[in-house]
Design goal:
Mean pLDDT: 79
Largest sheet: 6 strands, antiparallel
Number of domains: 5
Number of strands: 23
CATH superfamily of the largest domain: GAF domain
CATH topology of the largest domain: Beta-Lactamase
Structural class: alpha+beta
Helix content: 40-55%
Strand content: 15-25%
CATH class of the largest domain: Alpha Beta
CATH architecture of the largest domain: 2-Layer Sandwich
Strand order of the largest sheet: 13-12-11-16-15-14
Number of helices: 21
């Protein structure tokens, strides 16, 4: 928590530094989106989230010609130019723009940092100066008359300037320097600078010196030229140079004025801000991964990939503690040889053994810059892998240790305090991920146990239902079997008494007929029971619902006419086909039509309606009658097995149960509405193709 506060405090300091810059500062990504700016830029130009640079700066819809950002991406160098910008108040400003590529810790360009200096007022003054210098010789003569009077004033400005000012002759020999210049370059006395053969010796990069001299020759001045100057004892400084030529009376170059500003601290602060921004972005990405996934392996591997993307380190191992908190087991890794990873001492380590195990024992993050300087029984094996330095990050969640993350480098690289803080923050995220994953496993296990208990209850209910079913079947079959047994015994008595004569053939025929009917009744009960229990495979195909209706009515029309029942068909035109097993759906319709017929003992009307359902992707088939209806008490039970309101011998209550099961297997539904003495309506809903 303390490290996180330090990070936030440092970030605030960097932001304050950024806002103190007097230039306009923005950062642009490769998609031309402005991802960062200082308040000065926002106040003058405004900025919408994700705004494109050419829209915000120049109020145009297409990218700029000779785009500085594109140049930076092409040659990996800084570029500058003078351009016209449109501020949000409508004012047009002439700016000097410099675009600098900003790289991440792996050397890739993360974004382009652009700084812009408003030259509008300077240009106006320059134009005024050019107008005034039309009569240069007269002006110089006039200035010479006042030179003695103003020398003291200029000397005061020269000495009190916070920027270094260096005056040279035409050959570059330093003829004067103010105290600020001496201090900026790290010298103690002015005479040390004046003793240099030429100011050219101050330039570290001779190519930059060539560019500066060329610009001075062509334009006569240079503003804020960025370069490196070498000071006392070879120390290098980041410097901005503003320079003008000094003209002699006859117009020749008599010398140069170099105004130097030390921007070393600003540059370092910018680099720190850039590194912080990259690391914060990586930390945010890791946090998003942790919060969006419960797959621990996915979280750990994504975290490793993000770390290797932003750090100079090239290999990572993550170890997690076992349940007994005695062993550290390798959970994820990247950047090591197969031989190294397959070693037992790498795949698992006891708590307290070596740097890795001691990290858990000590309970804090450890940095080992030189492995050979430390006493570790595993150091030889680690050095053999080529590892030069390692950070052992202590992973913790809710105050309890969960493991260790080892971030290593195969090259000479020293981890800074910033690295330590960043990796500690990442370690905290990993701790949260481990805790989330374990909580998820516990919930999953509890769910499995609950599911098992639920299945046990269902099995118990099935056993209870089976007992009820057996009792019902025994009752239904016992009656017809009793009748058959009675007639068999009667005929056996007739045979035993020798009364099985032709005169008794009529009675015997009647007995046999009754036995046949009762036996058939038993067979029908068994047949319906098998149909109810059988889970036959459903052959789902595309069918026309209209044709299924027609086939079903063809089988039952004659019976309906005998019962004086009128048939009404209301089939919507151009209906889509349905996905179903046509034979099973026909069985359902015949059952519903048969029930409707039995409900209209004195005749009535059977209405068959087919239309598009209110539910998208479904078709409604409605079977309605004008029969006796169903009471509210019975309505809730009609789909239960063996529930029936019919007289004994008319049915055993399996028809609607079978129909309900068939429609459920078709991913459809069946609903019923009924009112006593007015009729019933069954609606079957089926999916269309």
């Amino acid at each position: 928590m303390r490290n996180s506060k330090n990070l936030l405090q440092q970030e605030k300091s960097y932001q304050a530094l950024l806002q103190s810059v007097t230039d306009y500062v923005i950062a642009v990504n490769k998609d031309y989106q402005i991802i960062m700016s200082n308040d000065l830029f926002k106040n003058k130009f405004g900025m919408d989230p994700g705004g494109l640079c050419y829209q915000v700066l120049k109020n145009r819809d297409v990218r700029c010609e000779n785009c500085l950002m594109e140049m930076c991406y092409q040659d990996d160098k800084a570029h500058w130019n003078e351009e016209i910008f449109a501020m949000k108040n409508g004012k047009i400003a002439q700016m000097r723009v410099k675009a600098t590529p900003v790289k991440n810790d792996r050397g890739k360009i993360a974004y382009i940092l652009e700084t812009a200096t408003d030259l509008t007022e300077k240009k106006r003054l320059q134009e005024e100066l050019n107008r005034i210098t039309g009569n240069l010789e007269g002006l110089i003569t006039d200035r010479l008359r006042h030179l003695e009077k103003s020398e003291e004033r200029y000397r005061t400005i020269f000495e009190r300037s916070r920027d270094g000012i260096i005056l040279t002759d035409s050959n570059g020999k330093i003829i004067e320097v103010n105290q600020a210049g001496v201090e900026i370059l790290g010298y103690k006395k002015k005479k040390e600078l004046l003793s240099l053969e030429s100011a050219l010796q101050l330039f570290e990069n001779k190519e930059n010196l060539y560019q500066l001299r060329k610009a001075l020759t062509q334009k006569g001045f240079v503003t804020e030229f960025e370069t490196h100057l070498v000071g006392r004892q070879g120390k290098v400084f980041d410097i901005l140079i503003t320079s003008n030529v000094i003209l002699g009376v006859i117009g020749h170059i008599a010398g140069y004025v170099l105004i130097i500003r030390n921007i070393t601290k600003i540059k370092r602060a910018q680099q720190q801000i850039e590194r912080r921004s990259i690391r914060l972005a990586a930390l945010n990405a890791i946090s998003m991964t942790v919060s969006s996934s419960l797959d621990l392996n996915e979280v750990l591997n994504n975290t490793i990939n993000k770390l290797l993307e932003v750090l100079e380190a090239d290999s990572v191992r993550i170890y997690l503690l076992d349940k007994k908190r005695e062993m550290l087991n390798l959970a994820a890794h990247k950047g090591f040889s197969t031989k190294f990873i397959e070693e037992n001492l790498v795949r698992a380590r006891k708590v307290g053994a070596g740097f890795l195990g001691q990290t858990v024992s000590i309970g804090k993050t450890r940095l080992v810059d030189n492995l050979q300087e430390f006493d570790d029984p595993y150091v030889d094996f680690i050095v053999k892998e080529g590892l030069k330095s390692t950070i052992y990050v202590y992973l913790i969640s809710k105050g309890e240790p969960v493991g260790v993350m080892c971030v290593s480098s195969h090259s000479e690289f020293r981890f800074s305090t910033g690295h330590m803080e960043f990796l500690t923050a990442v370690g905290n995220q990993i701790g949260v991920a481990v805790d989330n994953a374990r909580l998820y496993d516990h919930i999953k296990k509890a769910y499995e146990e609950l599911k098992e208990a639920q299945e046990q209850v269902i099995r118990s209910e099935k056993l209870a239902s089976l007992g009820k079913l057996a009792a019902t079947i025994a009752h239904e079959i016992n009656n017809p079997l009793s009748a058959v047994l009675t007639y068999i015994r009667l005929m056996m008595k007739l045979i035993a008494r020798d009364r099985f004569t032709e005169e008794r053939l009529g009675d015997i025929s009647r007995y046999l007929s009754t036995m046949e009917l009762e036996t058939a009744r038993c067979g029908e009960i068994v047949k319906n029971l098998l149909a109810f229990s059988r889970q036959s495979k459903t052959a789902i195909e595309t069918h026309s619902m209209k044709k299924i209706i027609e086939r079903s009515l063809a089988l039952i029309t004659h019976e309906l006419k005998l019962e004086e029942i009128k048939i009404v068909k209301e089939i919507e035109p151009n209906l889509p086909n349905v996905q179903c097993d046509s034979k099973q759906i026909q069985q359902v319709l015949l059952n519903l039509m048969g029930n409707a017929s039995e409900a209209m003992a004195k005749g009535g009307t059977l209405t068959v309606t087919v239309k598009r359902s209110e539910r998208d992707g479904f078709l409604d088939v409605v079977i309605s009658d004008t029969g006796c209806g169903i009471s509210k008490e019975n309505l809730k039970n009609i789909f239960e097995p063996f529930f029936t309101t019919k007289q004994e011998g008319k049915g055993v209550g399996l028809g609607l149960s079978i129909a309900y099961g068939i429609i459920a297997r078709h991913n459809g539904s069946i609903e019923v509405k009924s009112e006593l003495k007015k009729g019933s309506s069954f609606k079957v809903v089926l999916p269309i193709s």
